[in-house]
C-alpha cells in the first residue's frame, strides 16, 4: 500500500507554491530479487510562524514494515503567568548542557522522542519527557528507557553563569539518575574557571560523586588549560550509559611567541573510574607549526602513548600548500612495543599525498586524487592505495559523480571500492538517480555489487 501511495505522489503533478514542501523518494534495489522497495518522505521545515508546524518527518518502508524517524511537531506557544512557553512534540535532542558535560554518557547524546516545554529569557527552563532512541547499537538492542529531563539557566551576572540540570529514568532499573550543575566563572579578562559538579545514582552505593574542573587562560601569545575529570562507576547490568566511567587529568598549552610559529603541547593521564588504582594510560604530545614559508605550512608532531598493554610512539610531519585546499604531503612513523616481551613489536611507515582539484575546470567538473604508500602493511592491507573522487558533466544537466579506491597487493592492483551515481531530471520537481556500488569482500564478484534506482519528487503541501 505504501508503495502505491509513493508512486502516486511521485508521478502526480503539483503546481509551484510557497507552502511547506515534502521530498518524496522511492528506491528499488534492482540487483536483489524479492527485496522490498523503500519509500521515504522528508518534510522540509516551514518558515517560523506561531501555529502548528511539522518541520520534519522521515517514513521509510523496510522489509520489516514502515518505520518512522526524525518526527517533530512544533506547537503554538503558550502563555503561563506572563511567561511564553514553547512546546514541541516528537524527536529532539536534549539541551546542550547535558551533552556538553565532560562526564556525559552515550544516553545524553541520543535523541529523545517525547514532549518538551521550554522558556526563554534571563532564566530559561527546559522540561522534557520522553523515550530514549534505542536504534543505535547498544548492550541491549531495542532497549529504549523513558526519562524526564530538567535544565535551567541562571546568569547572575556577566562574570558567572550557573546551569543546573537533572535526568530521572522512568520505569527503568538499568538507567542511572543524574543531577549536575555547570558553573562558569570569569576570574579576570584572561582567566576563566569552568566546573561541572554532580552525582549519579547506583544500585549498590546510592550515589556516586561526579566532578569536572578546568582553568583556562588566554593571552595574545599564549594559551593554557588544566582539566580534571572524575566519572562514575559503571552499572553491572546492560543498558545505555548515562555517565562516563573515566578518571582523567589533562594539561595543555600553546605558545605563539615567534611570528608564524605555533608550539602546542599536551599531557594526559586516565584510568577507569571503577578501578582508581589501575595503571594509568599516559599520553604526551608536542607539535610545531610554521606558516611563514613561501611554499606553504609545515607541521611536525610527536605523540607518545603508554597504556597497560603497550607503548606507542608516533611521529607525524605534514606539508600543506597554500591556499587552503591545496596539495598536502604527509609522512607518519608509528612504533608499537608490547610490554609483554614475548610479543613482537610493530613498526609502520606511511606516506600520503592529497591533490584536491587535480582536474578543476569548474564546480561541475572536478577530480580529486589521493595516494597512500605503506611500508610493512598489515594482513590484507595494500602497499599502495589510491583514491579518485569527482564529478563530470555528460549531457546538459546530467552528470556522473563517484569515487573509487584501488590497492596494490602482491603482484598487481585490485579494486577495493567503487561508487558511481548519476542524477537525471525528468519532469518539473522530479528526478531519477542511478547508483552503482561495489565493496570488496574478496574477489570481484556479483555478490559484492549493488545497483539502485531512486525516483524523487518535491511536492508543495498546504500552508499551515
In words, what does this structure look like?
The protein has two helices and 28 strands. The radius of gyration is 27 Å and the shape is globular. β20 (310-320) and β21 (328-338) form a beta hairpin. With 464 residues, the chain is mostly beta strands. 3% of the residues lie in helices and 61% in strands. The two termini are 27 Å apart. It has a 26-stranded antiparallel β-barrel. The longest helix is centred in the first third of the chain and has 10 residues, at 2-11.
Share in β-strands: over 45%
Distance between the termini: 27 Å
Taking all residues together, what is the mean pLDDT? 81
Give the overall form.
globular
Quick structural summary:
The chain is built from two helices and 28 strands.
Amino acid at each position: 500500500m505504501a508503495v502505491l501511495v509513493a508512486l502516486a505522489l511521485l508521478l502526480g503533478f503539483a503546481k509551484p507554491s510557497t507552502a511547506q514542501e515534502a521530498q518524496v523518494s522511492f528506491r528499488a534495489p534492482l540487483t536483489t530479487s524479492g527485496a522490498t522497495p523503500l519509500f521515504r518522505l522528508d518534510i522540509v521545515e516551514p518558515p517560523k510562524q506561531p501555529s502548528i508546524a511539522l518541520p520534519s518527518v522521515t517514513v521509510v518502508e523496510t522489509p520489516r514494515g514502515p518505520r518512522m524517524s526524525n518526527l517533530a511537531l512544533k506547537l503554538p506557544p503558550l502563555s503561563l503567568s506572563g511567561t511564553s512557553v514553547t512546546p514541541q512534540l516528537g524527536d529532539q535532542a536534549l539541551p546542550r548542557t547535558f551533552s556538553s558535560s565532560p562526564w556525559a554518557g552515550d544516553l545524553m547524546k541520543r535523541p529523545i522522542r517525547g514532549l518538551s516545554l521550554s522558556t526563554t529569557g534571563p532564566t530559561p527552563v527546559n522540561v522534557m519527557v520522553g523515550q530514549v532512541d534505542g536504534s543505535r547499537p547498544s548492550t541491549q538492542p531495542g532497549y529504549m528507557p523513558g526519562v524526564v529531563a530538567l535544565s535551567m539557566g541562571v546568569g547572575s551576572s556577566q562574570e558567572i553563569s550557573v546551569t543546573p540540570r537533572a535526568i530521572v529514568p522512568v520505569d527503568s532499573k538499568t538507567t542511572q539518575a543524574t543531577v549536575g550543575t555547570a558553573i562558569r566563572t570569569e576570574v579576570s579578562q584572561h582567566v576563566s574557571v569552568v566546573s561541572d559538579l554532580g552525582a549519579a545514582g547506583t544500585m549498590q552505593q546510592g550515589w556516586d560523586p561526579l566532578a569536572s574542573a578546568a582553568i583556562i587562560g588566554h593571552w595574545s601569545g599564549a594559551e593554557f588549560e588544566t582539566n580534571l575529570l572524575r566519572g562514575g562507576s559503571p552499572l553491572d547490568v546492560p543498558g545505555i550509559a548515562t555517565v562516563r566511567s573515566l578518571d582523567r587529568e589533562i594539561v595543555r598549552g600553546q605558545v605563539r611567541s615567534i611570528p608564524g610559529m605555533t608550539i602546542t603541547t599536551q599531557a594526559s593521564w586516565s584510568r577507569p573510574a571503577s578501578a582508581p588504582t589501575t595503571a594509568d594510560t599516559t599520553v604526551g604530545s608536542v607539535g610545531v607549526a610554521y606558516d611563514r614559508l613561501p611554499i606553504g605550512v609545515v607541521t611536525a608532531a610527536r605523540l607518545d602513548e603508554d597504556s597497560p598493554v603497550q607503548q606507542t610512539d608516533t611521529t607525524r610531519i605534514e606539508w600543506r600548500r597554500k591556499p587552503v585546499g591545496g596539495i598536502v604531503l604527509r609522512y607518519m612513523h608509528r612504533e608499537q612495543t608490547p610490554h609483554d616481551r614475548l610479543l613482537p613489536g610493530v613498526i609502520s611507515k606511511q606516506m600520503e599525498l592529497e591533490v584536491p582539484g587535480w582536474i578543476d575546470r569548474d564546480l561541475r567538473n572536478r577530480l580529486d586524487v589521493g595516494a597512500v604508500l605503506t611500508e610493512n602493511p598489515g594482513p590484507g592491507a595494500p602497499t599502495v592505495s589510491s583514491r579518485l573522487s569527482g564529478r563530470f558533466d555528460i549531457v546538459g544537466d546530467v552528470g556522473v559523480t563517484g569515487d573509487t579506491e584501488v590497492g596494490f597487493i602482491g603482484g598487481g592492483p585490485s579494486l577495493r571500492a567503487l561508487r558511481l551515481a548519476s542524477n537525471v531530471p525528468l519532469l518539473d520537481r522530479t528526478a531519477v538517480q542511478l547508483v552503482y556500488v561495489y565493496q570488496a569482500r574478496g574477489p570481484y564478484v556479483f555478490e559484492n555489487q549493488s545497483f539502485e534506482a531512486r525516483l524523487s519528487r518535491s511536492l508543495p503541501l498546504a500552508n499551515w
